[in-house]
Amino acid sequence: MASSRYKIALIEPAPLIAAGVKSMLGECGQFEVAYAFSSLQAYDVRASHIHPDIVMLSPYVLDFSARLSVRTAVCCPENAALVALVSSHFDEKTLRQFDAAIDVYDDLQSVTQKLSAALKLNAEGGAEGDSYNLSDRELEILVAVAKGLTNKEIAEQHDISVNTVITHRKNITRKTGIKSVSGLTVYALLNNLIDQTDVE
């Protein structure tokens, strides 16, 4: 049934891989590539107009020099699963930020199982699903906290009030579920927001 198929937005620069994913998923009936983009920029232009159940992308389209978490870099609808499409070795730290990782060598059964698990994981996450959706300002505050700055120092650095800093910190704690400064520091390190030298 067409109405029960999960829609996928695929972001893959290699036409042969994109065609293979479309063809393979076309065989299963449960999932369909409803939208295909060759770059993250092309996807970003249309992101607010489409409503995929899954955003599947090659990690290679991400700009890792921006030092943002994957969920911050990709405009992913709140209830959509975020899936990596991996065509060669990629570091585990990045792949852990996705709900699932599909390898180009996976067979159809494995792919559908991983996609189903990603959807289930995302649905069960509920409020935790937005834990990575920190605003740019919240990311700036998080980095400052991880570097050991006080609320007053952060307020002066960003030209905002201490109360605003406290509000941002409450939002960061709510979204990440992390309450301690040391926990936020580890989070910032794992998401490549800061270097080890920033906290030594």
Throw out a few tags for this protein.
single chain, 200 residues, alpha/beta, 5-stranded parallel beta sheet, 5 strands, elongated
Q: How does this model look, in words?
A:
- By secondary structure, the protein is α/β, with parallel strands linked by helices.
- It is 44% helix and 14% strand.
- Helix 4 (92-95) links the parallel strand 4 and strand 5.
- The protein starts with 5 loop residues before the first strand and ends in a 10-residue tail after the last helix.
Helix content: 40-55%
Output the helix-strand order: EHEHEHEHEHHHHH
- The low-confidence runs, each spanning 5 or more residues with pLDDT under 50, are 126-131
Helix and strand content put the structural class at alpha/beta
Largest sheet: 5 strands, parallel
Q: Determine Rg (CA atoms, Å).
A: 18 Å
Tell how many strands the DSSP assignment holds. Answer: 5
Give the helix tally.
9
Categorize the overall geometry. elongated
Can you give the mean pLDDT?
A: 85
Provide the β-strand percentage band. Answer: 5-15%
Report how far the terminal alpha carbons are from each other: 57 Å
Oligomer: single chain
- The largest sheet has its strands arranged as 2-1-3-4-5
Q: What is the element layout, followed by pairings?
A:
Elements: E1 6-11, H1 15-26, E2 31-37, H2 40-46, E3 54-57, H3 70-73, E4 81-86, H4 92-95, E5 100-103, H5 108-125, H6 136-146, H7 151-158, H8 162-176, H9 181-190
Parallel strand pairs: 1-2, 1-3, 3-4, 4-5
Helix pairs in contact: 6-8, 6-9, 7-8
